[in-house]
Structure to design on (616 residues):
């Protein structure tokens, strides 16, 4: 039980992009700099998308160039197209993260592209990365279910993973985009993927929309997954279910793994200090549980009458 | 994966007892009557404790005598002492649930009894049940950790289980009273208990205080546990951590197991209808996630522009 796990925080991209208010550039940089000192394996810094599409991340270059990059931490950015890739490469990111859907309807609704169209675009993006040391990751949305279509056949997901690897993608993130996955499904799909492509770098990305986020992470762990996306404070939300939680919470995930005796490389106290300042930064409460309850090793004083 | 699971709701006891407001007797009865029609295996109706100690449950007899008992559903009540047992037996309950702590400090703080003193009292209570068909369950609080003392050695927990079975207790609930358990610990302890006492009836009782509730339930399931306590809407709270969640949420647990293809015997739609009325009944929002997000098979309409 001492396998090293890799924890990747997506709050400053996946979280901040849907916040009602723009988080000031200097606050983003300060938060990422603090996260860089926690032992996280990877930080999804921002998205090199159109400022019109996602105004909250219109400061992508400023943030990427403003942060203090800590050796050993990978800095990744979401890249939606060739132009975004060129901008990302100009900032010398460690990794670009491409996003596509496993289901046609979600792809069209969210990206205005079918999976096949996404794959074509990925080829053009990967062409642009030739000669650069950048790592190419692809996040496969709705890999565990589509909010429009329902079940996404595992064979479909596996075929898309194969196509991604064929065109030169190095890492694949299996995303439960709207929190539809259950632990049995997660264990089956992850086990199958790891068995078929033992050399590929797989990440699991879960949402806590229906309370199963950490149970799904546990199932993925049991299947052999060692890389996990999560979001500080549980920031992120679910656009389809107002009031429901979004991404699993980084500090809750790290806390669980740490209590299980697993090595995440993360300093939980430092991470919790980052999370503690998040409500002030975004102007609202965040879903994280450990932030409210304290870690499991928290001790309470005996009732006063017992001390007498 | 089609083993039958038994889901036991504790909201009307564990939840209502700490609510700021008294839930009217007729509302309690109406809720229990609705829960009885959902396929739940067991309902912890109330507590036969002193009305002064827990004023919210001062109507224990009225509630227990007022409900419509559905064949196949077990009705259990918490019983703190001989007098409570006599009151419970007079109401012809199916089960009495005795409560003790696995740790001295929590026992003294919560029940004013060490585990050894609790065991002595249990003997007297069990004496009173002789000749009655009532099932005797004991809930072992802090079995996965004590908020005052920290770790509770597994050997200590196992020794107490042995003592409980020796004095005639038929079922034992391993309780993570303040949400300190982690999945690795849960799997070890539950596996060990089931291996040592294959004939005993074990229940797992988890809190979601640190977000691990359903992950711990999954770990207990993997260990072979088939009986789970949970609370409608996640009602319950944690007296030690204001703002933190309490009991795992019944409908979230049933939803997870159902999505995994497991048989809980519960009609999730009916259960969700009960949960949906809970906020009105208690006057505040409840932590349940599926109630907010809908079940995983919920489908969303395509964006309007895609229909054109």
């Amino acid at each position: 039980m001492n396998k090293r796990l890799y924890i990747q925080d997506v709050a400053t991209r996946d979280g901040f992009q849907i916040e009602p208010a723009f988080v000031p550039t200097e606050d983003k940089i300060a938060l990422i700099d603090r996260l860089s000192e926690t032992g996280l394996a990877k930080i999804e810094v921002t998205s090199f998308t159109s400022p019109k599409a996602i105004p909250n991340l219109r400061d992508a270059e400023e943030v990427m160039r403003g942060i203090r990059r800590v050796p050993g931490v990978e800095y990744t950015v979401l890249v939606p197209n060739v132009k975004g890739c060129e901008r990302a490469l100009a900032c010398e990111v460690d990794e670009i993260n491409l996003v596509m859907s496993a289901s046609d309807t979600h792809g069209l609704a969210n990206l205005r592209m079918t999976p096949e169209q996404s794959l074509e675009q990925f080829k053009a993006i990967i062409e642009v990365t030739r000669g650069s040391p950048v790592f190419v990751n692809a996040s496969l949305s709705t890999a565990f279910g589509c909010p429009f279509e329902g079940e996404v056949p595992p064979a479909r997901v596996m075929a898309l993973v194969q196509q991604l690897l064929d065109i030169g993608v190095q890492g694949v993130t299996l995303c439960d985009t709207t929190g539809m996955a259950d632990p049995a499904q997660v264990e089956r799909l992850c086990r199958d993927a790891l068995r078929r492509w033992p050399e590929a770098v797989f990440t699991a990305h879960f949402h806590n929309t229906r309370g199963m986020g950490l149970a799904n992470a546990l199932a993925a762990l049991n299947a052999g997954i060692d890389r996990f996306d999560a979001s500080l404070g549980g920031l992120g939300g679910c656009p389809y279910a107002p009031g429901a939680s979004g991404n699993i919470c980084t500090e809750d995930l790290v806390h669980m793994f740490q209590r299980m005796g697993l090595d995440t490389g993360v300093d939980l106290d430092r991470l919790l200090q980052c999370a503690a300042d998040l409500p002030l930064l975004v102007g609202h409460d965040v879903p994280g549980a450990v932030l409210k309850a304290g870690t499991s090793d928290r001790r309470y004083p005996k009732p006063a009458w017992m001390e007498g």
In short: The CA atoms of residues 196 and 253 of chain A lie 27 Å apart.
